[in-house]
Amino acid sequence: MMRCRCSRVLSAVTGLLAVICCPAPVSAGGAGPTSEREAPRSSTDLSQGWRFRQDAGLSGVESSAFDDSQWTQVELPHTWNRIGNEGTERSPLTNDVQGVGWYRLRFRAAPSSTARRYFLQFDGVGAVADVWLNGHYLGKHAGAFSRFRFDALAAIKPSGENLLVVKADNTRPQPGATTANVIPLSGDFFVFGGIYRSVTLIATDLVHADMLDYGGPGLYARAMTIDPKSAAVRVSAKLVNDGSKPRTVIVETRIESGPNIVVASDSSRVSISPAQPVLVERSLHIERPRLWQGMKDPYLYKVLMTVRSTRGPDLDRVAQPLGLRSLSFDADKGFFLNGEHLYLKGASMHQDRPVKGWAISQADQAQDFDLLRDMGGNAVRLAHYQHDQYSYELADALGFVVWAEIPLVNKVSFDGSSASPELAANARQRLAELIRQNYNHPSIAVWSIANEIDLTATQIKGPSKSAALLESLDRLAKQEDPSRFTTFADCCEVRAEPHGDAAGEAIGGIAPRDAIVGIADTVGYNRYFGWYTGRFDDFGAMLDQAHRRHPALPIAVSEYGAGAALTQHTDDPAGGRINPHGRPHPEEFQNWYHEASWNALRGRVFLWAAFIWNMFDFSSDSRREGDLTDINEKGLVSYDRRTRKDAFYFYRANWSAQPTLHLVGRRYLDRPYGVVDVKAYSNAAQVRLWVNDVDEGTTPCEGGICAWRSVRLRPGPNILRAAADIDGATLFDSMQWTFSGSLDSVRIKAGDVSGYVSKAGQRYGSDVYFSGGAPGGINAPDSPASGRIAVAADDAGLYDCFREGDFSYRVPVPSGRYRVTLKFQEPAADAAGVREFDVRVNGKIVLRRFDIFASAGGKLKAVDRSFDTTSADGGILIEFRPLKGNALVSALSIASSDRAGGH
Predict the structure, then answer these.
(1) DSSP string, 766-780
(2) Mean pLDDT of the region 493-521
(3) What is the pTM (predicted TM-score) of this model?
(4) Are the C-beta atoms of 813 and 744 separated by less than 8 Å?
(5) What positions carry a catalytic annotation?
């Protein structure tokens, strides 16, 4: 093995004394196998035997004399919180208490015959941790998501019983609270309390890799140059001598392409003085390097550093992943991996599960990544905080490109002012920990320094002064890691010039705020057109405008999505308004939303990424939506991971090369209408459909959507089967619907996505068969009316929504005679003569200059009108043509004449 002379210089980045050694090139596979030595450091898992108590009023808990015999016995990972359940009421099993929980553990250290240094490693405690060992206070860590370590040497009993005490505090942040300067100050996710990741006792020699380097490994590798013939890799190791005398050690570094297959190595002597950390930097060369190419070929090398005594024994050994790749962004062309364009398509994900909360397993994490991969994603946004190390390891191994993020969310202060020095320091600490602990993961492309940092200001139209902190974080990220790019997710960009008198001025009634887009190298936009605001077709126009406004800035979409309840359905998602913060949230609306949104994103080549919000439903104690409580149900997969929603298969049909065929609507079992549209998601060119063995024909698939119009069901059960040929194989899918009505009786609740069952048991389906007009209703957020409708009957719910404007209904019924009943109420006019319209049935005027107010005798009063007509093959056409104001109807009933009674 080649040895070389080393020179000692002061590192400009870290300020540490650096030892720079010359490279020792080894041809690919040239060094051959080397013998593995016994690992010199030991790790003791401290997951078993804990006792727990949730109580903020305790004192003296750190004392060995404290009696914990009545405490609950728990194992790690653990959280005391439990939140999120099915149904519209909070479960009695819920524990949403945020405050203090205490943990106590008695353990023994592994015996050792040599002098050892001991460190306690915590992989995640929510959210502030105070730690005592044998009554000695080791320190505090303020941050729920990153790993941290404490030096335990002064307190540990190497040969006796030890008492470890942890106080975990997840108090909700507010002025004066213990978490007032700990990010995040708020967020649409629940911060679980407890020791929710593993705890380990690590014993090292007195000479070791730095264990207190922001929780990092102490070994960092980066490719400086890459070409087909060679890759130059700089390896930096931070070494510490905790002994009392200077030590000369041998530092061996090697890069392996497989177990004991060395492709580059170096060995040199290094002198380390006590209490003076040394940065040892090596430059190694790999011949004919194999690149990490995302999902195409996620190839990983391994970097190993061994610190050895000059007498022979190993003192420390550290191994880290190494992926050789280059990253670049172009404001007009998007993202490039190793010089090849790659549109990053993926989803964001949180780290919680039902009952477990944040105390998830590696198997849980692996399942999440498997689901994203199965959908066809090639990127993941690990939101809104640092995830467990295993998630980054999975991304490396599977080839996902990662957006990694710190939990700076919604605001930087409680009053809209600049961040306090304490909060700013906490944010910088979180960023330094994120980068040091994950520096070696090739999957990470961007460090995100914030999420929706102006959201609170936008909601209350208040000020926001976040620029100074974001600029500080951006500088820190570049200092820590100049090889990667920075980003953040923007919710609420205001058009203001970044310099000059216009910067920060009040715009559109919004208080002054800092212009922040452009501070980071790239930006992601969180936008929900058609859900929280605007229309679907606003999405593309907004992105084009942003691209024109920031022509040199690479742009991504970091969030877009809509809620979906598994038990709530609609016959036409365009038929009624959706309250994004309420109920219901029909699954079909989520399908419609994603079909339209992806259509806006797929062709905009300047976007470097699109991240769906969210891959999975997740806990949020501010949510009472859809059919769930304390859960945000925008996920494409249910909270328990058991159900892939229909929209999951829409993306699978568009993103994955895996043959896909999925009939849509399988959870909407009981159908009110006998003439329906049927849809499948597939990446086949065309799909064939059978309904009850009746061949409905083959339809082409465009954008992954295959649709059959006006398919007839028969009363009772209906079996739908689909088939498609893809890559020489035939795929099949099937589902069953039940039509609970009859073809010659149709009842429609206008302007509603839910439908209604009358007191007489008559079922009105959700709004369907319409053309034109717009939905409205008493319960809509912007409704001009307030209160319920005053009707003598018990069916006021039939009148609380409506369709208005210039519109018509073409109702498919068999030929014959029918009674048409129309139901009206006046929601807004305070006098007669304000709203007048004609109603035509099959071209014949049946209501001329109809005035609901005059006919009902006032506002918010029900009035019905009925007519007899006939149906030809085309069904019945009912037209509502406005003369003054908008035409309007609340419900329609069309029934065969011998069924007309009671309508």
Answers:
(1) PS-SEEEEEEEETTS
(2) 64
(3) 0.93
(4) yes
(5) 452
